[in-house]
Amino acid sequence: AVTTVPVLKNFMSLETEDVVAEEVPVALVYNGISHTVMMASPVMLEEFGTGFSLTEGIVESVSDIYDVEVIEACGSGREVRITISSEAFHNFKARRRAMLGRTGCGICGVESLGDALRPVPDLPATQTFDMRFYRDTVAQLKRFERIGALTGCTHASVWIRPDGTPAGGAEDVGRHVALDKLLGLRAREGWRDGALVVSSRASYEMVQKAAMCGVEILFAVSAPTALAVRTAERCGMTLAAFARAGGPNVYTHPERLVGAQDERLCA
């Protein structure tokens, strides 16, 4: 997922090579109908197809996905062919018909403001996270930024078990795609207990995607947006941002973070 390119350094006095991340167009196709094309790193695309289907509400659960096949297409591109249940496909086609003829608003490629700000589910209160493991949790991101370590141009998402150990992670040139890949991996592996850690900011889309998959605890390395905070508060998610070695700022539902005040890890 990386390649080398020539580059001029030191005010163009030195010609050498640099390592850069690959980025390819990825078409998502449902039961033979092309839905969208995303730019992504060409790794973990089966997981991406699974996660995107869940976070975008195309399927309700991983059991609605019967098969995911990745093929090369159009030169460097990839086509992710996803076979979904007849009920999910019926709802998918109805949603596409409802979008036809609307005036586009230009927000993230959706067709209307109503599509941009979709409802998110109310989350249960089944998870807690022991803040004794917090510092090790943040450090785990580096383990899953292999492309980023070489190129400096990817984001990572990691699923952390309640004991602070990583279950798995994903990275991509796009933060949304990295999250979709991780949530797809989580669904395929059946991970439930734990917390989500992302290397990016906590935007509305990151909160929305996580909530669609039932994630109750989200740590983000960078800042949140106001809409992300309001959305997390409304759906019942614990949102902590600026999650670095010194401790995070906890914006919503701190009751899930056990021992946070005792450990003096939360600003």
3D structure, described in words:
The chain has 267 residues and is α/β, with parallel strands linked by helices. It is 30% helix and 30% strand. It is built from nine helices and 14 strands. The protein has helices at residues 45-55, 86-99, 113-116, 134-139, 146-151, 175-189, 204-212, 226-235, 260-263, and strands at residues 2-9, 14-21, 24-30, 33-40, 65-73, 77-84, 129-130, 155-160, 166-172, 195-198, 217-220, 238-241, 249-252, 257-258. A six-stranded mixed β-sheet has the order 9-8-10-11-12-13. The chain has a four-stranded mixed β-sheet with strand order 4-3-6-5. A hairpin with a 3-residue loop joins strand 5 and strand 6 (77-84). Helix 1 crosses helix 6 (175-189). The longest helix is centred in the last third of the chain and has 15 residues, at 175-189. It is globular and about 50 Å long.
Continuous helix count: 9
Widest sheet: strand ordering: 9-8-10-11-12-13
Structural class comes to alpha/beta
> What fraction of the residues are assigned to beta strands by DSSP?
25-35%
Give the termini distance in whole angstroms: 38 Å
Q: Roughly what percent helix?
A: 25-40%
Low-confidence spans: 100-109, 263-267
> How would you spell out the order of helices and strands?
EEEEHEEHHEHHEEHEHEHEEEH
Overall number of strands: 14
Q: Which term fits the overall shape?
A: globular
Computed Rg: 19 Å
User: What would the average pLDDT be, to the nearest integer?
Assistant: 89
What composes the largest sheet?
6 strands, mixed
